[in-house]
Amino acid sequence: MTATVDPERFAAFLRSLKERSGLSYEALAQRTGSSRSSLHRYCSGSYVPPDYGPVHRFALICGASPTELRELHRLWAVADMSRMTDEAEGAGEGKAEGKAEGKTAPTADAEAEADTELPAAGAALPAEADTVLPTAAEGVPPAGTEAGPAAGTEAGPAAGTEAASAAVTADLPTAVAEAGPTAAGTGSAVTPWRRRALPILAVCFLLLVAGGTWMTLATRQRAAAEDADDGRLLFSAACAEPVGMGQHDTCVKEVQRLLAEAGADISVDGSFGPQTLRRVTAFQVLHDLDPDGVVGTETKQALYDPKARIKSWSPKKVRQRVRQVFAEDPDHAVAIADCQSFLDPLHILPNTNGTRNWGVFQISDTRLRELGGTPREALQPEWNIQAAHRLWKRAGNFDDWPYCERAYKDSSKKSSAKPSEEPSAKPSEEPS
């Protein structure tokens, strides 16, 4: 999917919601708190907002259903990912251009070095570079002997090599003896037994190296075969890479299947969307893993050997408990919770700045730190509802949830305005 198609699909979905609602950009701007030009840019596809809040508010006012809200969040996440990819590529191109412009011309010394030519193959070296060849006293036969180049040329490569070896071997004891103790090391001549033992030792060494290499390769192949045949698809070559957002294949389906076996309420459809992202993140929190929403090696291992079940409350039970805790204003509290998380205790909303909102009342990371809680506690419905009640009592209102609070007030205004908009039962008077 290209970066151009992602924002366009997101914008097309927004346009369909707007057209269905029958509201103008001006009316939507007044109700959402966003500017008219910003909403127009969202719907035209020229800009993807980095924060999902305005989009969620826009969809709620347009009357989007919970299913449509989930689909809209998925489209926004993919479009926002495309936007960040485009920005990263643009920054990379700028750096590349800067590096290209910053290159300096080669100096005169470099040009002089580049112009220096090496001697051609076969050309005589300068006098200063002549190599002093060892003499016969050092164990090498002098030029002009029968084992020299002429003999090697007449007898062929193999014969020349054998002749040279024989000459070196024949002269070696004498040369060592003439050189004295310093040249021989211990002063003893090289015996025929040593000459025969060296090749044998070399062959044994090569055999040992070859055997060790073969055993290492065989062990690795056997381990790879065991991993491939143990039935764990996520550890096969087909799923070697981490599984993440936007992926559609059998690896995603395996992740969803394992999450369902661990107790998660999830659709096993092979598509890694917002629902799968939330369930993977919740699973990671419950297993003390980095909650990045990506199924890497550690998460794969935990999925095949889960240590905890993914247990939570049904929406009905959440609604009942919210009404009990918020006894002062139960209907209002239920409406806020439903708007925030669809009454899903494991609802997790990632933000573009790296923070997250957790649980029934979508308590932010900042509020979580203030309350002294952890993500694991925030995913427990009882703790989350009680924490939201403390925030509500401290502020005296639901302003900690501004988007859903504004939507609730707008819906309340609509409900109170309906009776006055009904036509009067009194018949109109005819003009005389």
Task: Compile the SSE list and pairings.
Layout: H1 5-21, H2 25-32, H3 36-44, H4 52-61, H5 66-101, H6 108-115, H7 149-179, H8 181-184, H9 192-229, H10 250-261, H11 274-286, H12 297-304, H13 315-325, H14 330-341, E1 348-350, E2 356-358, E3 363-364, H15 365-371, H16 375-378, H17 381-395, H18 402-421
Antiparallel strand pairs: 1-2, 2-3
Description of the molecule:
The chain has 432 residues and is mainly alpha-helical. The protein has helices spanning 5-21, 25-32, 36-44, 52-61, 66-101, 108-115, 149-179, 181-184, 192-229, 250-261, 274-286, 297-304, 315-325, 330-341, 365-371, 375-378, 381-395, 402-421; strands spanning 348-350, 356-358, 363-364. A three-stranded antiparallel sheet has the order 1-2-3. Helix 1 (5-21) runs parallel beside helix 4 (52-61) and helix 2 (25-32) packs across helix 3. The protein starts with a helix and ends in an 11-residue tail after the last helix.
